[in-house]
Design brief:
mainly alpha; globular; single chain; 11 helices; 51% helix; three-stranded antiparallel sheet
Length: 276
C-alpha cells in the first residue's frame, strides 16, 4: 500500500516512522478507491454524453441532476429508437452510477426506472441489428438451466452469455476478449474493446457493465466463477473445453459461440433466437 500512498505524497518523502500496517492498509484502500472512482466516472462518460445530447434536444439541462422521471422517459425513447435492450439498460444504469459518484441520488435505483427497465421486453422494440436479440426473460431461463449443470463448459457458457448480453457485445468482440481487457471493480466490469466494428485496429472503446443485484445476470460474478474454475490468468477469456475437462489455449471462434448459444437456448426451451 505504500506505493499508493507515495503517489499521493508526490515529491515529499515518507517519515522515518510509519503508522502500523493495519492503518496503512486502510489508508491505501481509501486512496485506491478514490482512484477507481475517477476511472469509473471516466468510463461512464460515453453513456453520460448520450444522455446529455438527448436531454438537451428535449428541453432538459443534461448537465443538471437527473430526475428519475427524465431517466425513465429516456429509457422509453431509446427503446422506441430501436436500441438493443442490453444497451438501453447499460446506459441508464451508467448514468445513474455517474450521478451517484457525483454525490447525487442514483435515479436508476428509483422504482419507476427499475420498472421501466424491467418492462423493456414489452415495449415492442425492434432489434438493434438485423437478427433478433436475446430477451431478458430468455437469458434468465438459459442461466437458470446452466446453474443446474456442474461443469466447466456450463460455467464458461454462463459467463459468455452474461457478459455478451449485459455489455451488448458482438460475437466477434466476445471471442476477442482477453483477461487483460477486463478490469474488475467492486460492483462493475470495465471492458476495453479494441478495434470494434468500423473502427481502426488501434481504436479502443470502453464499456462499463454494472453488477446490479436485481438484474438478470451479474457478469462480475460469472466471470470470477469461470476464470477461477478454469484457472485462466491471462490470454483469451473464452476457450474450448475438452470432453475430459481440459482447457484449450486458443479462443473460441465466432461460429462455435453461435453453436453454443443455440444449443443452450434449445436445452432451456428458448426458441426463435438468432444472435447475442
Amino acid at each position: 500500500m505504500t506505493t499508493t500512498i507515495e503517489a499521493y505524497v508526490g515529491g515529499d518523502s515518507l517519515p522515518d516512522v510509519l503508522p502500523n500496517a493495519e492503518l496503512l492498509e486502510g489508508l491505501g484502500s481509501l486512496l485506491d478507491a478514490d482512484t477507481r472512482r475517477q476511472s469509473t466516472r471516466d468510463a461512464y462518460a460515453s453513456d453520460v454524453r448520450s444522455w446529455q445530447r438527448w436531454a438537451e434536444t428535449n428541453g432538459h439541462d443534461g448537465a443538471a441532476v437527473v430526475h428519475p422521471l427524465w431517466l425513465a422517459s429516456w429509457v422509453v425513447a431509446m427503446a422506441a429508437d430501436g436500441l438493443a435492450v442490453a444497451t438501453v439498460r447499460r446506459r441508464a444504469i451508467g448514468v445513474g452510477a455517474d450521478q451517484e459518484l457525483r454525490g447525487f441520488a442514483n435515479p436508476a435505483k428509483h422504482p419507476m426506472v427499475r420498472q421501466a427497465l424491467a418492462k423493456l421486453d414489452a415495449l415492442n422494440t425492434r432489434p438493434q441489428r438485423q437478427a433478433a436479440a436475446l430477451r431478458a426473460s430468455d437469458l434468465s431461463l438459459i442461466l437458470t438451466h446452466l446453474a443446474e449443470e456442474d461443469s466447466l463448459a456450463a460455467a464458461r457458457d454462463a459467463c459468455l452469455l452474461s457478459i455478451g448480453w449485459s455489455a451488448a457485445l458482438r460475437v466477434s468482440e466476445l471471442v476477442g476478449l482477453k483477461v487483460g481487457d477486463i478490469a474488475v471493480g467492486p460492483d462493475q466490469l470495465t471492458i476495453s474493446i479494441v478495434g470494434g466494428k468500423g473502427r481502426a485496429r488501434s481504436a479502443v472503446d470502453t464499456v462499463v457493465v454494472p453488477c446490479d443485484p436485481g438484474a438478470v445476470a451479474c457478469p462480475r460474478v460469472d466471470l470470477d466463477v469461470w476464470l477461477r474454475a478454469a484457472r485462466i490468468e491471462s490470454g483469451p477469456v473464452f476457450r474450448g473445453v475438452t470432453r475430459m475437462g481440459s482447457i484449450r489455449e486458443g479462443a473460441l471462434s465466432s461460429r462455435v459461440v453461435g453453436d453454443i448459444v443455440r444449443r443452450r437456448a434449445r436445452a432451456a426451451g428458448v426458441v426463435g433466437w438468432d444472435q447475442l
